[in-house]
Amino acid sequence: MIRFASLIIAWTVSLLRLTVRIRFHNDPRPALRNDGKTYLYSFLHSHQLGLILGAEKGTGAMVSRSKDGQLIVPLLQMSGCIPVRGSKRSSHRERGGREAIHSLTRHVSGGRPAAIAVDGPRGPRGRVHKGVASLSQQTGAPVINIVAISRRKLIIKKSWDRIQIPLPLTRIDGFFGDPIYPIVGEKLECYRRRIEAGLQSLESMHEPKESAYNKSSPAAANDDIAAAA
């Protein structure tokens, strides 16, 4: 049943792709390619459908082994992406993506980009998990945050991420942040928070109403309290 549903989703979104217009802004990829560098896409789980519509072929995409993850595997394959499945140990998020990170490290080290829905698979919305920062530190590849803003869309308000479904004949604007590079000696948590701050700021700039649903990291919240005191 899951396989059948995933194929229906893949064909439906493939047809949707024929009707939408996609525009990228502040795109750093040509310059990175000219310098011989690969990169890591960092995006919100809620924007994944919009980004898949404009996916770069050959991108390795982290996908959980959950039923929800299985639903998008055929769609990613039809879009030219390479699904990389995480561990089944989904009850331990800190360890749950270890297998996928190792696979993506090999993928990126081979000169190809990778993509991670950084607040997935269960959120909280907007809170970046450490996988993308760890992958960047291991490979030296910069992180490029991106938000996909559909002018006409359906928002599933009861889902934890408020996932967005672009509607036919819409325009999708992909807004990039500047590349974020790992710093030698920087702690993983500090780097993770830099990526999170950049991504939340990018969404706040281009879609402030939805960005209001983001959750700040506990450490960041503590810093805010300390600063206020």
Mean pLDDT: 89
The shape is: globular
Tally of DSSP β-strands: 9
Structural class estimated from helices and strands: alpha/beta
Instruction: Tell me the number of helical segments per DSSP (H or I, 4 or more residues long).
Output: 10
- Note the main sheet: 7 strands, mixed
Strand arrangement in the largest pleated sheet: 1-9-6-2-5-3-4
Give a description of the structure:
By secondary structure, this protein is an alpha/beta fold. It has one domain. 43% of the residues lie in helices and 18% in strands. The chain has 10 helices and 9 strands. It has helices at 2-17, 29-34, 48-53, 67-78, 93-96, 98-109, 131-139, 188-206, 208-211, 218-228, and strands at 21-25, 40-43, 60-63, 82-85, 114-117, 143-150, 153-155, 164-166, 171-176. The strands form 2 sheets. Strands 1-9-6-2-5-3-4 form a 7-stranded mixed sheet, sandwiched between helices. Helix 1 packs across helix 4 (67-78), helix 6 (98-109) packs parallel to helix 7 (131-139) and helix 7 packs across helix 8 (188-206). The termini are far apart. Mean pLDDT is 89; it is low at 88-95 and 219-229.
